[in-house]
């Protein structure tokens, strides 16, 4: 057989050298694909969480998430005035709970050592009020308003 | 703005800027190197078109041989950060790793050209073999991703 020299046409070699698509287009497609996968996974996680959370009974919730409250830095040495306000808040909460219609969820109050003025309803039936909130709320209705708001979270199961 | 805020912004800029800078550098430098390399490959391939390199072990054994010489061509080509980014993204969803295919193509053609350049006066190169070796771990962290290729064969020069 006789050898005839023949050059490879440049376009025929493009596929073998991976040049049949511009690298930036390749990057855009890959980023889009990976982004779509991440978005889909995130969406699935959200849907699964939504579906599961509403099926957890208050009693199971208290058992599963009781550690949330113990993980917060709790105030230890409060001034007599703040201790007094904490006692008022405790008393208010007992009154509110009697009318709150929250069966199966033991609600308790802790003081979170944080200067920011805030209160949160934690999973597991704990209401945390910050020391900053205790400092600025000196009237009973204000504290009752905050506590009732947090109880509303437990009632709506949206905490 | 406080010093802490400036330090935080600087840290974020460094954390994002260094990889982005390396990838951009890889894109431009890598494309420039690849274009130059392909120009050289096309030119030399045209020059060596008359010299066939084949894998056969049978050739015109009737013709008297003036000289037979073993020829070797070895090539190592490094990947750049941009190619690596494309490859690692491709790893997630699967498919052709186009960014590495060009490296392999360049290495293969360059190795054959170097092998031919060792004996430019030969009439044919027979028994051509190609092998890859691994001198830089491509998967291990801190390893160098590079394509390594060795081509070897027997160059035959017939008696005139």
What is the global morphology of chain A? Answer: elongated
The beta-strand count of chain B equals 3
Radius of gyration of chain A: 30 Å
| DSSP helical segment count of chain A | 7
State the order of secondary-structure elements of chain A, H for helix, E for strand.
HHHHHEEEHH
Overall mean pLDDT of chain B stands at 88
Q: How far apart are the termini of chain B?
A: 84 Å
Tell me the quaternary state. Answer: heterodimer
The topology string of helices and strands of chain B comes to HEHHEE
Helix content of chain A: 55-70%
| Count of beta strands of chain A | 3
Structural class of chain A: mainly alpha
Q: Sketch the major β-sheet of chain A.
A: 3 strands, mixed
* Terminal-residue CA separation of chain A: 83 Å
- Figure out the total of helices of chain B: 3
Residue runs with pLDDT of under 50 for 5 or more positions of chain A: none
Shape of chain B: elongated
């Amino acid at each position: 057989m006789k050898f005839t020299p023949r050059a490879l046409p440049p376009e025929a070699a493009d596929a073998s050298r991976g040049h049949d698509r511009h690298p930036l287009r390749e990057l855009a497609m890959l980023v889009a694909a990976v982004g779509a996968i991440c978005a889909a996974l995130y969406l699935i996680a959200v849907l699964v969480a939504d579906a599961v959370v509403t099926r957890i009974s208050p009693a199971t919730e208290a058992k599963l998430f009781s550690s949330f409250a113990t993980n917060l830095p709790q105030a230890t040495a409060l001034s007599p005035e703040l201790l007094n306000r904490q006692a008022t808040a405790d008393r208010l909460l007992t009154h509110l709970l009697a009318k709150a219609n929250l069966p199966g969820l033991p609600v308790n109050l802790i003081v979170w050592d944080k200067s920011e003025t805030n209160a949160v309803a934690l999973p597991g039936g704990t209401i945390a009020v910050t020391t900053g909130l205790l400092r600025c709320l000196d009237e009973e209705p204000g504290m009752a308003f905050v506590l009732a708001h947090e109880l509303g979270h437990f009632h709506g199961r949206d905490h | 703005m406080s010093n802490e805020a400036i330090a935080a912004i600087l840290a974020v800029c460094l954390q994002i800027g260094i990889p982005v800078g390396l990838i951009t550098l890889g894109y431009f430098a890598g494309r420039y190197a690849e274009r130059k390399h392909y120009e050289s490959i096309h030119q030399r391939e045209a020059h060596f078109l008359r010299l066939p390199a084949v894998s056969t072990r049978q050739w015109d054994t009737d013709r008297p041989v003036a000289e037979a010489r073993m020829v070797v061509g070895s090539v190592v080509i490094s990947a750049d950060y941009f190619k690596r980014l494309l490859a690692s993204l491709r790893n997630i969803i699967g498919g052709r790793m186009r960014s590495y295919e060009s490296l392999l193509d360049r290495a293969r053609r360059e190795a054959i050209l170097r092998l031919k350049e060792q004996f430019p006066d030969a009439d044919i190169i027979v028994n051509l073999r190609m092998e890859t070796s691994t001198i830089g771990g491509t998967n291990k962290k801190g390893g160098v991703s590079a394509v390594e290729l060795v081509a070897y064969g027997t160059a035959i020069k017939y008696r005139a």
